[in-house]
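Anyone? Bumping this.
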Amino acid sequence: MAVQVDVPPLAAPVRKTEKRRAFGEVPGLATLAFGFLVFLYLPIAVLVVYSFNAGNIVMVWTGFSTDWYAKAFANEDIRKATLNSLIVAVSATAIATTCATLAALALARGGSFRGKVVSLGVITLPLMVPEIVTAVAMLVFFANLGLNLGLGNVILAHTTFCIPFAFMPIRARLEGMDTTLEQASRDLYASDWETFRLVTLPLLMPGVLAGAMLSFVISMDDFIITLMVAGAGDTTLPVYIYSMIRQGITPEVNAVSSILLLFSILIVTAYWFTTRQKPGAKSH
Amino acid sequence: MTNKATSVSPLHPDPVSRPIEEAGPARTAVELDRVGKIYGHGTTAVEALHEISFDIRDNEFFTLLGPSGCGKTTLLRTLAGFEHVTRGVIRLFGQDIVDVPTHKRPVNTVFQHYSLFPHMTVADNVAYGLRRLKKPADEIRGTVDEMLRLVKMERFADRLPAQLSGGQQQRVALARALAPSPKVLLLDEPLSALDLKLRQAMRQELKQIQARTGITFIFVTHDQDEALSMSDRIAVMSEGHLQQVGTPTEIYEHPVNRFVAGFVGDANFIEAEIASPIGAKVTCRTRGGLELQADATKASSGQRDAVLFLRPEKVRLTEPGAGTVNGTVRDIQYLGNSTLMEIDIGEPASVIVRQSGDVNQPACRPGDTVGVVLDPHALQVLAE
């Protein structure tokens, strides 16, 4: 302890150059990436900024104001379209998430049954089918059936394409869950229903929430399928914005789009936080 | 020290040599009658359990011992109701439970990886079974406190399982399974995930808890030390077949066959043919031409070939010429509390000798010639 010897530091074999460069060190890559991000997000930023423009010409800045938001909120058609969007998104999310949960339970806990692999394929297939194909198919299907439930048609269509989005996170969560927990529950005198209610569902909840939020965002943003399926009075917000643009772009469109954007960002952020949370990691 | 058996005080009877019958006629807790389990069907069928029949007594610490894949866990799972038996009958205190669903069997399980509910506190985990049984709230509270005290976890009642160490989770799992006071407690290798020191401490504690609660424990393990040190009786299994049921002493001292002898503890096997009429003792001629006297209580009357069995600690070494046979020391392994020696006595397999620091044994080095005493009482003919 008492003796301290000053040893000159040995020249450690220093590698002069790392063979592999860090990703950011590739010449020009950072600039390129930055340019790409600008290309991606600048238009959106401009849209949001100009929604606060005082003048009524879109690209000429005349001063700050929130008039267009006031105007948008006062617009009866926009309010109706927003309400429609919310009704459709909430209903479709609820139905799709329930279906997806049941499907995931059947596939992950139902043991083996005929057509299990096919079922999995059929459930996730809509993710790969081009949206326009689904849209046309829905249109033809509803027309041939003569089904005319107004907003109900839109809800049905949205439910259909929301199911795979809700299904994926729920199934992922369920597959990662230890089945002995459910055995332990039954071993401790819980019936199948009690086991589901007290053990399976609470542990599955982060997956269910993630699936629901994903469905909600997808449904809120949908345009093509809604355009095809929705009747005259059943316009949703994205379809309404599209029709506004056809009459000329006003800052009002910017304001409505910004609101829609804010909605999506909030939901996606919530989704991100829910999926990050680990089971049992929360402390008191 | 040779008079150890007679010097045991009557207040502390030797626990292993105490006959079970002393406790009076015990009730049968679990009765297995030709239980069979087959996975799959047709050509891919695998027989996991073959005609398993034995009884487990009430208030017994019973161990299912065997290597992995021997069917011990499958058997435990059929008792819990997680698996259905293909054939046979399982009776729990006289009642056939084969068709009783898991949640109606008065049996609880301690799982290998604890399987505590991660979203519930320790207290809620322990109360889970009682709540499903619709016990009154104050009774539940009382039992939960009592169970947590029993496993020394009362200070952790409000924690979540993720905030506990492995050993603590193990205790909570035990409390959770004991809380509904099951008729039989099933333990599926509960100590295998703990480190050595903790495992040894938990052995004693499990044994004490079993004695205090009076609940029949059925304990599954592949660890022979665990089985020998904790159990009242042991069932040794291999490849879906029951090999032997007996007290730890019976299993260790008098294994019925080569599998049990080799799996429980170390063993020397000498192949020989029987050279005299079979009585209590028999003379055998080994492959290497030795004539050996052996205990033949387990030999069958028409038997000609025999496997002689001898525990390494029952072999004594002496001066060359003074033993049953002379041998050459091949290898010496120092183990701290004992020394393992490999001695070539001219047989196909060398004899392993365990010496426990006895000063009367001659010190030797590899290559030395020694006398090897093969005691006819310790040398046993195994059943075919």
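Late reply, but here is one note on the structure posted above: The first strand of chain B starts at residue 28 and ends at 39.
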